[in-house]
Structures are given as C-alpha cells and as structure tokens.
Amino acid sequence: MPMHKIIDLRSDTVTRPTPAMRQAMANAEVGDDVYREDPTVNRLQERAAEIFEREDALFVPSGTMGNQAAIKVHTDPGQEVICEARAHIYNAEMATMAAFSGCLARPIEAPDGILSWDRIAPWVRARTDNRSRTGLISLENTANLAGGSVYPAKVMEEICDQAHAAGLPVHLDGARIFNAAVALNSSVADLTQGFDSIMFCFSKSLGAPIGSMLVGSRKFIEEARSIRKMLGGGMRQAGVLAAAALVALEESPKRLHVDHENARFLAEGLAEIPGLKIDPAKIVSNILFFDVSETGMTSYDLSRRLAAQNVLANGVTPKNIRMVTHCDVDREDCARALEVMAEVVGVVRKAYSA
Ligand code: TLP
C-alpha cells in the first residue's frame, strides 16, 4: 500500500511557518525587547493594539503565559475566577491560577461551553465571612474544549456590562478570536470591546510558529509586562518571532473560512461513518469533537490505529476524539482522513460483529 503524507489534525498549533513567514524572520530587524528596543516586536504590538482598538499590547511567548499574567494582574490571592467548566485556563494550564495567583477556579457548566450572565450571576460573590470573593470572570471564544463553539456578540456584551456593574473585570481567552470573528462575520475589535483584557494567539489558527498577545489599556499592559518578566517571559531579540507573527496577523484571518469549511466537511463525513457520533450543524469554526464509543474502541485505540495510517487526531476523553483544521491541511487531506477513518472503524466493527 502506498504510504501517504502525514495528515495532522491534532491541533492548529502544529503548522509550519509559511515561506513568507520564514522570509520575514530572516530579514527581521531586532533589538533587546526587555529594553523595549526591538523594532519588530514594537511594530507587532502597535499593530495588534490598532486592530483591537486598544491603547496597548504585549507580546508573550505563549497563550498560557498571556492568560495567567492577565489573571495575576486582575486578581488578589484568595479570590475566585469564574470560567466555564471546560475552559482552557482551568483544565489545561497546569493549575497556574492556583500556584501563581493564589486563586480558585469557579467552573460553571454551560451548554456548548457558552456561559450567560444568568448562569454566572448566582456565583458572583462580594466579601462574606466565609466564602471567597469573586475576582475575575474569564470567557473563552472560541471555546476550544466545547468544540470550537462561538459566543454570540450580545451574550458577551451582557456578561461584560453586568460584570462591570458588579465591579468585576472580564478577561477574554481569545486564543482563536479571529475564528470567532470569521464565524460571526464581525471584527475582533467589535467582538472584544467590553473586555478588560484580551489574549489571542499567533501560534494557533493564524499559523505563526510562536507567540501570543495581550491587549488592553496602557495601565493593564504595564502591569502585565512586570508579570511577564516574573514568569521568565522577557525575551531579548524576539523580533525574529514577531516578524512571523506580523505576517500571520495580516494574512491569515483572510483564509480562516477555508478551515471552517474543511471542519464542516470533516464533520459531515464523520457523521456518515457508522459508529461515530457528531452533529455537523454544531461545527462553526475549525474544531470538532466526535464520540467513538459505538465503534468498539476507545478514542485512544482508534487514534493509534489512525496514526498507523498517518492520520493524526487525539483522543481527549476515552469516548471523544478532537480534530482541528488549519492552514497545513487542505480539502484533499480531509477527504483522505475520512477514507482512513471509515476503513479503520469498518474493520474493527466487522471483527466485533463476526
Ligand atoms: N490549546 C492547545 C492545547 O493546550 C489544548 C490546543 O491544542 O488547542 N487558550 C486556548 C483556548 C487554547 O486552546 C490554548 C492552547 C491556550 C489558551 C494556551 O496556548 P499555549 O499553548 O500557547 O500556551
């Protein structure tokens, strides 16, 4: 059997820099960014602030550092951070909000990972004699572990307005906020205007190799800069990274709709395979989860069998596999992934029923 190229659907973090990014990296003007003297980092920060219509921005090495620096700036030790139960800050950031900021997550379950003020309100607490106080509300858009779902603009707006009325700041984990903007046919500035801080990633769907950005007021960004240094994230000639991120910021949002169409195509194909469960109508961005429990395999077994045929997708729970589309997989790759999936699932189901 001919060996096919690897089709990597594990995450949109796996992309390689494009030729234009590599060119920009090679030509990047650099300086020491801890002295604020890297012209390319400065340009990237100014451009991000401009696109989000905010005062300032800060380049950070990772989304995790951006989120956790924001949590540290907004909270005091002993406070709670309200988030959805599947939030990345709660599930996939090494309990840093507890270890570094001394905060307790207050996870709230919501359908498709989309919180509303009605769900949040009962958990907002001012000082009492025994319960901890709420320090921050954090939303995630798109909501990764809830299947790349997207917050309606009005829902975010209401949460931000009500939180502010209660004296609380709101942070946005917008690792994939450009995907949300494409899904809603809106701009990232419009979608994020109510938030006190925003983190977005260059190294996810935008396809850059490394880096994320915090965006907010000048005061917030000054504070976050100190926290970034505390976390070891003060980088020196980071312009080589910022150069690739600049290309990503200008070029990639235009093509994200292709990833969304490919994700929907995958979902429709998966829904046709007996034993797999997914509702294609729910796929609105570049992430999809499907249930494999009726195949007779765990997600981990199935994932291993796919990998043996050069299709990579991770089991996230024993029942669920996640696939993420990105700029390094095209429609043909998705069709091939579906073929392999049908074959692997079919062989195992046949063996079970024999
Ligand atoms: N997400 C990664 C994994 O950690 C799960 C992925 O493959 O999707 N916020 C959100 C919503 C994220 O999805 C991620 C990364 C982060 C923050 C953290 O970004 P990094 O990996 O740059 O620290």
Sheet with the most strands, sense and barrel status: 7 strands, mixed
State the CATH superfamily name of the largest domain.
Type I PLP-dependent aspartate aminotransferase-like (Major domain)
Tell me the fraction of residues in β-strands, as a range. 5-15%
| Low-pLDDT sequence parts | none
User: And the CATH topology of the largest domain?
Assistant: Aspartate Aminotransferase, domain 2
What is the domain tally?
2
CATH architecture name of the largest domain: 3-Layer(aba) Sandwich
Provide the list of bound ligands, each named once.
Answer: ligand TLP
Q: Based on DSSP secondary structure assignment, what is the total number of beta strands?
A: 12
Mean pLDDT: 97
General form = globular
Written as H for each helix and E for each strand, in order along the chain, the element string is EHHEHEHHEHEHEHHEEHHHEHEEEH
CATH C-level name of the largest domain? Alpha Beta
Structure commentary:
By secondary structure, the chain is of the alpha/beta class. It folds into 2 domains: 7-14 and 255-353, Aspartate Aminotransferase, domain 1 (Alpha-Beta Complex); 19-251, Aspartate Aminotransferase, domain 2 (3-Layer(aba) Sandwich), CATH 3.40.640.10. It has 14 helices and 12 strands. The chain has helices at residues 19-27, 39-52, 63-74, 88-91, 96-99, 117-120, 153-165, 177-184, 188-192, 218-230, 239-251, 256-271, 299-307, 331-353; strands spanning 7-8, 56-60, 80-84, 104-108, 134-140, 170-173, 197-201, 212-216, 287-291, 311-312, 314-315, 320-324. The strands form 3 sheets. It has a 7-stranded mixed beta sheet, sandwiched between helices. Strands 9-12-11 form a 3-stranded antiparallel beta sheet, with helices on one face. Strand 11 and strand 12 (320-324) form a beta hairpin. Helix 1 packs antiparallel against helix 11. The radius of gyration is 21 Å and the shape is globular. The model has no long low-confidence stretch (mean pLDDT 97). Ligand TLP is lined by residues 11, 13, 62-64, 67, 88, 92, 140, 144, 173, 175, 201, 203, 212. Ligand TLP binds at residues 11, 13, 62-64, 67, 88, 92, 140, 144, 173, 175, 201, 203, 212.
